[in-house]
Amino acid sequence: MARTPFMAGNWKMNCTIVEAKALVNGQLTELNAVTDVDLVLCPPFTALATVAEMLKGTSIKAGAQSMHFQDRGAFTGEISAPMIKELADYVIVGHSERRIHFNDKDYQIGLKMAAALKAGLTPILCVGENPDQKENEWTESVLAQQVLTALRDLNPSANIVVAYEPVWAIGTGAPAQPEEANDACRFIREQLASRLGDDAAARTRVLYGGSVTARNVADFVGQSDIDGCLVGTAALRADEWVQVVKNGVETARSKASAQA
Question: Please, what CATH class does the domain formed by 6-259 belong to?
C-alpha cells in the first residue's frame, strides 16, 4: 500500500511567539509549494495559536507537543485534547522526554491516544528504547510493550502515526543506522498488525526520529518501512528544515516509483 510521506517538526521548549513567527515566515513559501507529503509543525503551547493562524490556507498543519487524557478538571498546567482541537490537527503522545522528565507511563499514554482520537486529533505516538535497553538487546520487548499498551483501546479504523525515536539517538548527533531503524519500524508495523489488523498496519505511517538532518534524511526515508521523520533540532532552523523536507520527499517519490 502506498503511504503518503509524513514529516513533522517538534520545536520542543523553544521559540517565543516572536521567534515562532520568524521561523514560520522563513519556511512557509517554500514548504507550501511541496506536494505529495503531509507536513506538521509542533510549536510550544504559547505559540500554537499564532502558528496555527499563520498556517491557515496552506498545506501545512499544526500540532501540539503533549496533552492530558482528561477533557477537563483540576489539572493545573495541563491542556486537554478538546482545547488542542480548537487550534491543531495533530498531537505528539508519549515522547521520550515526557516519559523521562514527566513520568508519563505506558497506560497513561494509552489513555491519551484514545482521548486524542475522541477529540478528532491525529496522535503521533512516540516509542523507543533507552541506551541500557539497547545494550541489553531489549529493543523489541520495549517497543512491543509501548506500542501494544498505547493501542489497547483503539479501533482498527483509528487514524494514527507512530514515530520510532530511540532515546540514545535523540539530540545526540548520533542517529541510528538506517537499516537498524528500518528493522525497528518493521517490528512496530508487526505490532500494529497484531493489535489493529493488517489493513491498519499497511496504511499507518511509521516515522524515524533521532538526530535527523538534511544530510541523512534520505537514508531513512529510503528504507522500506520508514514513511518520514519526526525532527527536533533541524526543525528549528528554517533553511535546514526546508531542505530536510525536500530531500525526504524526493527520496519518498523515488522509492514509490521503484516499488510501482
Answer: alpha beta
